[in-house]
Amino acid sequence: MDWSQTVIGKLGKRLAGTVLVLAGSERMDCTFCHLIRGDAARWVARGPVASAFAPLNSLAPGHTLVIPTAHWADIFDVPPEDLAHTMALVQQVAAAMRTALKAGGVNVLNASGPGSEQSVPHLHFHVVPRWPEDAFSTWPTQRSRHQIADDPVTQLADAMTATHAR
Question: Which residues contact 39 (CB under 8 A, 6 or more apart)?
Fold first, then answer.
C-alpha cells in the first residue's frame, strides 16, 4: 500500500483523477457544487444539508433534482445522516408536487456508480411529477441480461446479515 492509499483510507479522502478531495466537501470540478456556490440554479429549496433545484432539461413540468449540499459522489459514499436529510427533502418535494402541481404521483430516480449511467458524480435524486395520461414512462422495458451463478436473493440476505452482525 503506497502513501496515498494510506492517506485515503485513514483520512477519508478520495482520489478523483488528479484532484484530492475530502469526501463531503465541495469539489471545484463538480457541476452541482458549482451551482451550490453560485446562484445560477432555479432553486426549489436550499438548506445546509440538502437542496433542490430545477434541472436544465426537465422530463416533466416541475421535475426537480434533490442533492446533498456537501459533495458525496453516490449512494455508496454518503453518510446515513446526510442521506436521511436528502430523502426527507425528496419526500417534501414530492408532497409539494402533489399539492401545488396536482400531480397524481411521482417517480424518484437515482443512478449511483460507474455501471449505472450516473450523469453527474454528485449524489442526486430526480423527483418527477406524474399525471394520468402524461405519455411518460420510467419503468425499464427490458430485463437485465446479466447473470449471477448463485441465488442473488440469498447472496443479498447473507450480505445484509453479515453487515448487521458487525
Answer: none
Instruction: Enter the C-alpha cell of residue 53.
Output: 433545484
Q: Do the strands 42-45 and 64-68 form a parallel or antiparallel pair, or are they unpaired?
A: unpaired
Q: Give 53: exposed, middle or buried? Use CB within 10 Å, 0-12, 13-18, 19+.
A: buried
Q: Which amino acid is at 20?
A: L
Whole-number pLDDT of residue 18:
29
pTM: 0.79
Q: What integer pLDDT is reported at residue 64 of this predicted model?
A: 97
- 69 in Cβ contact with 34 (< 8 Å): no
- CA-CA distance, 58 to 141, in Å (whole number)? 21
> Which parts of the chain sit beneath pLDDT 50?
1-22
Give the span between the Cα atoms of 10 and 95, in whole angstroms.
Answer: 41
